[in-house]
Amino acid sequence: MREFPGTRPRRLRRNAALRALVREDRLSVDDLIWPVFVRDGENVLEEVPSMPGVVRRSVDRIVEAAEQAAELGIRCICIFPYTDNALKTDACEEAWNPENLSNRATRAIRAAVPDLLVMTDIALDPYNAQGHDGIVRDGIILNDESVEALVRMAVAQADAGADILGPSDMMDNRIGAMRDALEAAGHSDTCIMSYSAKYASAFYGPFRDAVGASGALKGDKKTYQLDPLNAEEAERMIARDLAEGADMVMVKPGMPYLDIVRRVKARFRVPTFAYQVSGEYAMIRAAAANGWIDGEKAMMESLMAFRRAGCDGVLTYFAPEAAGLIARGWE
Ligand code: PBG
């Protein structure tokens, strides 16, 4: 390379056309997965106070959201249920009820918008009187009993027509057990996107409000979710879940863990996703609402950062808004 003034890197930043010409990557609507919250009732749209702009929708209004997603070119919608407290038990039976909210929403979306991919979440917390992702006895989260329940849940979701199952529970041996059960039930085409590197994070706070799990949860999730200081352990979990039959892997939360995304993508070269979680969403929205940052620009920059780090896609509550901006030619 010549020394300055022979090289002037700013030459390539001089105008929009040059910047576009040399841009290394693109954010595409194909990269966005939209998480949505479903609740009981008819014609209900209910604000989630800690996630401004995000609503819980009854099944009929979820179908409308799915139609909107398809119009925007979004490929995949991810369903999270807000379950009535009366349906929460210690054994979590509602989790594998074929008629539970998540399964009803899946069937309704499949019928109305057949080309939209439906992703579902596998963990017991929305159905658990104890608020944990696994079954609790005497204050202990039981691994193997939880996996049995999670497997039932996985098969019920696949029966309902889910395309992608997202086990977010972090129990040991769940991916292999689910894969075997899915094969046995004739669901050999059902994809698994494993929440493999899921950290014990304070950034899930608003989500727990959104699914109504905040009140029930006693203690924390540190006996199953990862320690924020551990990166090698995340790699081990990814390797394990791939060996057990995961098709895609996820890192969660997103922005504070982009280094993990980079490590995972570089080492495993498999479809890698990140979840820009509720707390990340709430931070950007809150700062924007106060006039402290430009919300649209911060949102798009955050999504571009996921691409640059190596994500094949990102789960984000911003999906419809970002898709709209991309369609209008955002740079
Ligand atoms: C449930 C689950 C959580 C999230 C997705 N699935 C919360 C948790 O583990 O406590 C968090 C999503 C978000 O914060 O947006 N296991």
From TrEMBL:
It catalyses: 2 5-aminolevulinate = porphobilinogen + 2 H2O + H(+). Keywords: Heme biosynthesis, Lyase, Porphyrin biosynthesis. It holds the Pfam family ALAD. Pathway: Porphyrin-containing compound metabolism; protoporphyrin-IX biosynthesis; coproporphyrinogen-III from 5-aminolevulinate: step 1/4. The keyword Lyase applies. The keyword Cell inner membrane does not apply. It is an enzyme of class 4 (lyase). GO terms for molecular function: porphobilinogen synthase activity; zinc ion binding. Its EC number is 4.2.1.24. The active site is at K198 (schiff-base intermediate with substrate), K252 (schiff-base intermediate with substrate). Homooctamer. This is Delta-aminolevulinic acid dehydratase. The lineage of its organism: Bacteria, Pseudomonadati, Pseudomonadota, Alphaproteobacteria, Rhodobacterales. The gene is hemB.
